[in-house]
Specification:
Chain lengths: 268, 250
């Protein structure tokens, strides 16, 4: 399959001319095929969210190129939808109005956009909560609202930045199944940032392992587990092998990250 | 109205009633001198005479109208100015301290100057009322817009939202609670200033009634007129609460 997304030699330094430059990403190269499910895993602060912001066109002062269908991206792109790591629902809008938001600003009429929104609300399992406001929902339900809202935008590429980070393991696994169903139904290309090795293996075709600052791609692990997959796959020995392999790779990075953090605290 | 909406109102009125009864007792037992604080019953009973002699209701609407006009002007100045201070960071940083300082200045003391400039008329009242109202509105508008979550702005950008929609559908609703805090403070200051100037220059509305009753030693009437000022204030508080809920229901 053709590559829908090409990331070419992308680097980013925050506060480059300032007193505390942070070299967040360094020469990241990554090609994503249309319809692929790719997870990105790496220690906290390694530049995962930064990479998503660059792909989503939300950061423009970076080096290197991002191409969609071979054309360079400049600013936000109709084909890219982002689910942010932070809480991002509009507190003043009901679930229905939150999910309908991207359609509303596109000028789609009320009846039509609400119908579409209801479809995606159902898809993420929030039917019955259409008229609730974010303050009346749990953290996980708010994140699912945000996922549904981005799905309603119907992007070809979904960037999901730890959408289920705040959830317990069991719920997360069930939502993982849900995501796989949605992915299969909508034929989208999915990029998922996660801290959870199990989740990465459960869902992905490939897992990208990033290393601590500056963020570079350390290794890309293809996951050859049969599809369609459900969370039951975690009981298989092959699954365990992948998890073990990823943990070995990540342990080094995590220790390095922790040591650096401790050193910087000690230096103060 | 739901039960939850009614309860605070009943609690509030009940509290008022309890205070009135306690005050009534305090005055009857001589703990409070009647020439300083009248009996609440006398205050209530003085309303008809005040209406007959001074057209209380008419003057209530004069002060209400003056406050409304001055607040309208304060909004016309404060909202765009606050937006400007938000857009142009250098001006925002430069002026915020001065604005806060100006806000804590008793601008009402400049009334002789305004009298000379504009005369003893409604225009002077409106202009002097709008200045202390516009300042908190401008400050809070800037603060509210600065406080809009970066993530929510990014949500808008990621959906390719136009500048206009970004402002109307994301920034404004985010900032409404903060801006309305400014508006509420602004209305209160506007009202206080207008009544104070009415009192000082013996012109128009409720402030003039307070001044005249006070000069006559008509203590219950003085308090009755002050109570009418409280009603004006309550009216604006309620009105802007309604507008805020309409703009941002939750
Ligand atoms: N707006 C910013 N200004 C300055 N530095 C930033 C900014 N955003 C991120 N950084 C820095 O860039 C580095 C990468 O941040 P980023 O948010 O991309 O990490 P991450 O991999 O998403 O981490 P996490 O897993 O904790 O979400 C961090 O060291 C962070 O401190
Ligand atoms: Mg992140």
């Amino acid at each position: 399959m053709a590559d829908i997304l090409q990331i070419k030699n992308v680097s980013k330094t925050y506060d480059a001319d300032g007193d505390n430059p942070v070299h967040a990403l360094d020469g990241v190269d990554l090609n994503i095929a249309e319809g692929e499910f790719v997870s990105i895993i790496g220690p906290s602060g390694c530049g995962k969210s930064t990479l998503f912001n660059i792909i989503g066109g939300l950061i423009d002062d970076h080096d290197g190129e991002v191409l969609i269908d071979g054309r360079e991206v400049d600013g936000a792109h109709k084909d890219v939808g982002v689910v942010f790591q932070e809480e991002s629902t509009f507190p003043w809008r009901s679930t229905l109005d939150n999910v309908a938001f991207p359609l509303e600003v596109e000028g789609i009429d009320k009846a039509e956009r609400e119908e579409t929104a209801r479809k995606f609300i159902q898809l993420v399992g929030l039917e019955g909560f259409e008229n609730h406001f974010p303050a009346q929902l749990s953290g996980g339900m708010k994140q699912r609202t945000a996922v549904a809202r981005t799905l309603a935008y119907e992007p070809r590429i979904m960037l999901m930045d730890e959408p289920f980070g705040a959830l317990d393991e069991q719920t997360r696994m069930l939502l993982g199944d849900k995501m796989l169903e949605i992915w299969a139904a909508l034929n989208q290309t999915m990029l998922l940032i996660t801290h959870n090795i199990t989740e990465a293996v459960q869902l992905s075709d490939r897992v990208v392992v990033m290393s601590y600052r500056p963020g570079i791609i350390k290794e890309i692990i293809p996951v050859d587990l049969p599809r369609p997959r459900t969370s039951e796959v975690i009981a298989t020995p092959e699954f365990g092998t992948y998890v073990g392999k990823l943990w070995t790779l990540l342990r080094e990075e995590a220790s390095r990250g922790m040591a650096e953090a401790e050193a910087s605290i000690a230096a103060r | 109205m739901t039960k939850l909406h009614k309860t605070p109102m009943i609690v509030g009125l009940f509290g008022l009633l309890v205070c009135a009864v306690l005050l009534e007792l305090a005055v009857s037992f001589g703990w409070v001198m009647e020439i300083i604080v009248p009996r609440p019953t006398d205050t209530v009973l003085s309303f008809p005479t005040l209406q007959e002699d001074m057209d209380l209701v008419g003057n209530f609407f004069v002060t209400l109208g003056m406050t409304a006009a001055a607040t309208g002007l304060a909004l016309l100045i404060g909202l765009p100015f606050g937006y400007f201070l938000y857009r142009r960071e250098e001006y925002g940083i430069a002026y915020e301290g001065w604005l806060a300082a100006a806000f804590s200045t008793p601008i009402v003391l400049l009334y002789p100057l305004f009298l000379v400039l504009f005369g003893r008329n409604h225009l002077t009242l409106i202009l002097m009322g709008c200045i202390p109202g516009a300042i908190p509105i401008a400050i809070q508008t800037r603060q509210g817009l600065l406080g809009v979550s970066k993530t929510l702005l990014n949500v808008g950008r990621s959906f390719n939202v136009s500048e206009g929609d970004m402002f109307r559908k994301i920034m404004l609703p985010s900032a409404v609670p903060t801006i309305f805090t400014g508006i509420r403070i602004g209305v209160m200051y506007t009202l206080v200033n207008i009544v104070a100037i009415e009192y000082l220059i013996d012109f128009g509305g409720l402030g003039r009634i307070v001044s005249q009753m006070y000069d006559n030693f008509s203590i219950p009437e003085t308090y009755a007129a002050i109570a009418a000022v409280i009603l004006v204030s309550a009216f604006f508080y309620w009105g802007f609460g309604r507008i805020e809920r309409w703009l941002r229901p939750v």
